[in-house]
Design brief:
Blueprint (H helix, E strand, L loop, with lengths): L22 H26 L5 H12 L5 E2 H8 L3 H13 L3 E5 L7 E5 L1 H22 L4 H16 L10
Antiparallel strand pairs: 1-3, 2-3
Length: 169
C-alpha cells in the first residue's frame, strides 16, 4: 500500500501554504481516513472473490440475522439505506443465485419475506472469514498500540467520545 508522509515538523512551510494548530487534527483525520479507505479496498476485494458487492453482502448479513423467520423485503430498504426498486433487484439476483429465497405473504401477496438459504449462509460466512483474514494481514503492518491509539483519537475527533479508561470512572 502506498503511504504518504506529511511534511515534517522541521520542514519550512512553503510561502502561501497555511499552517496552524488545527493541522494536527487534520493530519490525524487524514491518517485515519487513509487507513479506513485501505481497509475498505481489502474488504471489497475479499467480497469480490465470492462474487459479492458490499451491498449484496450487507443484504445477506441482514437477511441471515433474522434467522428462520426471514425478514420483510420492505424492511431491507431502511436497514440498507437503498431504494426499494434496488433492493428488489438485489433480492431477485440473490434468489437466482440460490443465496436467498422469497415467499409471498398471505393474504397480502404484495408483501415478500426473504430468508437466507444454506448456500447463502455458506457464502456469507466464507466472505466474512476472507475479510477477517485480509484485515488481519493489513493490521500486521501496524504496531497495534499505535493503531489502538489512532482509533481512540479518531473516535474522539469524529464522535466527540472519549474512550480513555479514566473517562469511564
Amino acid at each position: 500500500m502506498a503511504t504518504m508522509r506529511p511534511a515534517a515538523e522541521h520542514d519550512a512551510p512553503l510561502p502561501g501554504f497555511y499552517e496552524d494548530s488545527t493541522l494536527g487534527e487534520i493530519r490525524l483525520a487524514a491518517v485515519f481516513r487513509r487507513g479506513f479507505r485501505q481497509a475498505l479496498v481489502l474488504i471489497n476485494r475479499a467480497l469480490a472473490q465470492h462474487d459479492l458487492s458490499p451491498l449484496t453482502y450487507h443484504l445477506l448479513l441482514e437477511v441471515g440475522s433474522y434467522g428462520v423467520d426471514g425478514c420483510m423485503q420492505g424492511d431491507l430498504t431502511e436497514v440498507l439505506q437503498t431504494p426499494e426498486a434496488r433492493v428488489s433487484l438485489l433480492v431477485h439476483e440473490l434468489a437466482q443465485r440460490g443465496l436467498v429465497q422469497t415467499q409471498r405473504s398471505e393474504p397480502d401477496r404484495r408483501v415478500v419475506r426473504v430468508g437466507i438459504t444454506a448456500e447463502g449462509c455458506r457464502v456469507a460466512d466464507a466472505a466474512l472469514h476472507e475479510q477477517r483474514a485480509a484485515l488481519r494481514e493489513f493490521a500486521q503492518n501496524f504496531e497495534f498500540p499505535g493503531v489502538a491509539e489512532m482509533l481512540r483519537h479518531a473516535i474522539q475527533l469524529y464522535l466527540g467520545v472519549d474512550l480513555a479508561p479514566e473517562s469511564f470512572r
